[in-house]
Amino acid sequence: MADKRQSTETAEPFTERERVPTVVVDGVHITYTVHGTKGGRGSATSALSRIVSRRSAPGAREVHAVKGVSFAAYKGEAIGLIGSNGSGKSTLLKAIAGLLPPSRGQVFTRGQPSLLGVNAALMSDLTGERNVILGGLAMGMSREQVRTRYDDIVEFSGINEKGDFISLPMRTYSSGMGARLRFSIAAAKSHDVLLIDEALSTGDARFQRRSQERITELRAEAGTVFLVSHSNKSILETCDRALWLESGTLRMDGPAQEVVAAYEEFTGKKK
Ligand SMILES: Nc1ncnc2c1ncn2[C@@H]1O[C@H](COP(=O)(O)OP(=O)(O)OP(=O)(O)O)[C@@H](O)[C@H]1O
After folding, report:
1. Taking every annotated instance into account, which residue ranges of this chain make up the domain ABC transporter (predicted)?
2. In CATH, which of 1.20.1260.10, 3.40.50.300, 3.90.1150.10, 2.60.40.3500 is domain 75-267?
3. Is the ipTM of this complex over 0.95?
4. What is d(CA 68, CA 120) in angstroms, rounded to the nearest whole number?
5. Which of 19, 66, 187, 205 has the most crowded Cβ, counting Cβ within 10 A?
6. Candidates 28, 30, 63, 271: which one to mutate for ligand 1, based on the most atoms within 8 Å of Cβ?
């Protein structure tokens, strides 16, 4: 005979969120090698002989940006990455996106992660219109999908609110307008894993509110969202979990409210 607890579970089998891991970061270290930290660049022949003999360049210095970070992220989570300047947040995000190979450890992802940075590569000489199409295709949308979502993307970005800017080259946009268009292109698609670097800190208050709403929708569409931000308010409004990095190590991982509170105590001021 089934006990009470079991029968409750079978009556509502789908109410509890399935814990499907989307990103597993396992003991990841990331080291940058910075060349030319001493003297000039040296001659071409000396560089060639270094390559042949596999010696490193004189003055090459290592920057150990991420030091042994491990965590697992699950479907439906929105995770904030917080920490002081240079603590390794952007580096970790790039590693999850597959853009930087870990020097040690491994990153596993389910599906294709998309990194949405304020520096995402759009072509400044092309019009906003062409960039929407190319950006959509680059994210893996079909031509048909780009065509059907084009108007929504432009409307979401608000680029055309003060005139027909979408038919002008992107180099004529303000940095906020460019960031809004990048966010709108990336947010037009549901992502398995969406990585956002400071995107919410650009754009005006109205656009920030709209992008937060879109992130909430993307979460509902069952992806996982990572958000790097220096705005603790954005983290609290958008994320349910936070990772606090300091000097490349993971100092705390837990509910966003608790982690942000500890970080605020550490920094000694509210942001
Ligand atoms: N391309 C690079 N080459 C060499 N060192 C780098 C490079 N990018 C970042 N670093 C170094 O790696 C460390 C972590 O940088 P990262 O940009 O990941 O920090 P962050 O937490 O995102 O900082 P911020 O909050 O200032 O954006 C820093 O010491 C930085 O100097």
Report:
1. 49-271
2. 3.40.50.300
3. yes
4. 27
5. 66
6. 63
